Task: structure prediction
Amino acid sequence: MIRAFAPLLAALCLAAPAAAQDEGIVAGLSQDEISITANFNGSEILVFGAVSRNAPAPEDPLQVIVTVEGPDLPVTVRRQDRRFGIWVNAEAAEIDAAPTFYAIATTGPFDEILTATEDLRHRISIPVAIRAVDVGVENQVAFTQALVRIRSEANDYQLLEGAVTLRQETLFDTSIRLPANLVEGTYRSRIFLTRDSRVVASYETDIAVRKVGLERIIYSLAHDRPLVYGILALVIAIAAGWGASTAFQLLRR
Result:
């Protein structure tokens, strides 16, 4: 771990002080590109960094928030109701955009290290990151909470309070587990430093998630040439059925 921080410490020594703010962030990721293969079962990313200063550290304790956010996509959330003894879809809401994956790791309880105003300004918490404009105020809260609950149970949304390790208010690190059902696209990682529950510095970088190999070929066929994909799937199904039938007849003899 110490070796991982060595380049950061060297960068701090060589970097010129920034006049705009007293504290800044020098950070890195264990990997900035993830390849989804046929046997992909998830990945773990180590986020580490250091705090650069051009003045003595303030007396207020430093806190760190790290987020990893997947691409935003629209989603339909349905509410079920019991009618005539059976459960049916009674109401639905179209969420304009919701992260396909969202993880938040912090040094302490989220509500204690960030004010609601700062949360709205930087769009950090999971409910704030979800955009549901056209569903009405009452439905927005209910359906947003339902979406957060469903995706939290599937481990697609994660709130990892206390998962960031901060050493001497200078070095920090955390690890975030990405699930196997990642959506292809650009993932955004953000780091926030807070003092007195207010953001004093931020840092942002991207993580590329791409399908490769057979997964890439199948994905491209299904989206770019659906007719070819359908015909190929039909041919494979017929060949598999014929092969299984032939093998069964040979075994009976």
Observations:
- The chain is about 35% helix and 40% strand.
- The first strand starts at residue 23 and ends at 29.
- The radius of gyration is 24 Å.
